[in-house]
Amino acid sequence: MTENSTVQIQKGLAGVVADMTAISKVNPETNSLLYRGYPVQELAATQPFEAVAYLLWNGELPSAEQLAELRAEERRHRALADNVRAAIDLLPLSAHPMDEVRTAVSVIGASDVSGAGSVLDAAGSPEENLARSVRLYAALPAIVAYGQRRRRGEQLVEPRDDLDYAANFLWMTFGEEADEVVVDAFNRSMTLYAEHSFNASTFTARVITSTLSDLYSAVVGAIGALKGPLHGGANEAVMHIFDEIGEADKVVAWLDEALAEKRKIMGFGHRVYKRGDSRVPTMKAALDTLVEHYDRPDVAALYDALEGEFVSRKGIYPNLDYPSGPAYNLIGFDTLTFTPLFIASRVTGWTAHVMEQTASNALIRPLSAYNGVDERHIDGYVPDAEALAAAERPEELG
Ligand SMILES: CC(=O)SCCNC(=O)CCNC(=O)[C@H](O)C(C)(C)COP(=O)(O)OP(=O)(O)OC[C@H]1O[C@@H](n2cnc3c(N)ncnc32)[C@H](O)[C@@H]1OP(=O)(O)O
Ligand SMILES: O=C([O-])CC(=O)C(=O)O
């Protein structure tokens, strides 16, 4: 907190309670995270991601019929739409995949002309927004998968109707059926990433929604916020660190240097959790199954060495991005694809918050304290006409 002569400023809104939410409860005291009342660990262990998405949007887990209905709708919207593919193909291969996905969502939004006639209709009805949420969640895996494939010079893989969400996502990315253990680890990661109260990207979505803008604009803005390495971009950044260090034996020397240079160690620390992220044990267990499946004890050794060394020196614990980075690497995703995977999951939480914000809206507009120059006046200041002309046409002056 900093003091301005008359006001107290909560820099970064740290500790500020901005509104109520019934979607998730992050409790740093008990190191727990509940989605609509259910511990996230239980959801990750027992539910397909489709059921978690349903829960976030509707407040209850689905019945068998409701799950079947959601799965059918998801399958109907799985294929990469031609206009979205065309837009992606216009982008340079060197574009960051987060920018690619952001653009794709923008194209989907501009192609949904319901409510496009007037800004007064942009916010949409609850029914329209739920349908839009389901369609976006269904469309994102193909966008993420195609992005990675095109960067690798590979052809688009069409979705498979006989596979559920997580298995089909891996199928569209790699063009082969993933083993059960891999699908399970991936499904768990999707559940763990889905929702986390008023994190920066979700708050961005709520700010945009609060102006009565549309759901797609909220998601596009949220993607922009998620890209940053202090937020979702950290899962990509963790892998860069692993690549830099190389092997467990080099951790101590690498950390000495990194800390001497005052570098932030990505994948550690959290604004809310100060004694460990509630999701890490579940994701670490998923990583362990992948380490065993792919027979990569070197990855586990590097993971443990960096965690042990950093925690003992700084007392700062890993966040979810720390285990998910190497897990996605083992599955075979390119490092640049990691944060787009986060989008594919978090779109469920973002859209649940868009609907919650819309249902009980107040424009989000905080105050600021001014610390610029004191009031001053023009006092006849006008640029000298001749000097301006000369500055605008320097070549004519010879
Ligand atoms: C899914 C997610 O979005 S989880 C977050 C993913 N982000 C990361 O992993 C990026 C690395 N972590 C960080 O930058 C921070 O821990 C944040 C941004 C996540 C949270 O930060 P804040 O709550 O604002 O705490 P802040 O950055 O002020 O950290 C407090 C102190 O711990 C230090 N610290 C916190 N995290 C780290 C880190 N990862 N590496 C080194 N030092 C750190 C800060 O330098 C600061 O030290 P100081 O008091 O000496 O200046
Ligand atoms: O809550 C936060 O600030 C960041 C985070 O862990 C998330 O969005 O999952």
From TrEMBL:
Question: Is this entry keyworded Phosphoprotein?
Answer: no
Q: GO CC terms for this protein?
A: cytosol
Q: Quick one: a GO biological-process term for this protein?
A: tricarboxylic acid cycle
Copy the pathway line from the protein's UniProt record: Carbohydrate metabolism; tricarboxylic acid cycle
Question: Which InterPro entries does this one have?
Answer: 2-MeCitrate/Citrate_synth_II, Citrate_synth-like_lrg_a-sub, Citrate_synth-like_sm_a-sub, Citrate_synthase, Citrate_synthase_AS, Citrate_synthase_bac-typ, Citrate_synthase_sf
**Active-site residues annotated for this sequence:** 270, 321
Sorted keywords for this record are: Transferase, Tricarboxylic acid cycle
> Does the record bear Membrane in its keywords?
no
Instruction: Give start-end ranges for the coiled-coil region(s).
Output: none
Q: Which GO terms describe its molecular function?
A: citrate synthase activity
Q: Determine the domain of life of the protein's source.
A: Bacteria
Q: What reaction does this enzyme carry out catalytically? A: oxaloacetate + acetyl-CoA + H2O = citrate + CoA + H(+)
Q: Which family does it belong to?
A: Belongs to the citrate synthase family.
**What protein does this entry describe?**
Citrate synthase
Say which species the protein is native to.
Answer: Leucobacter komagatae
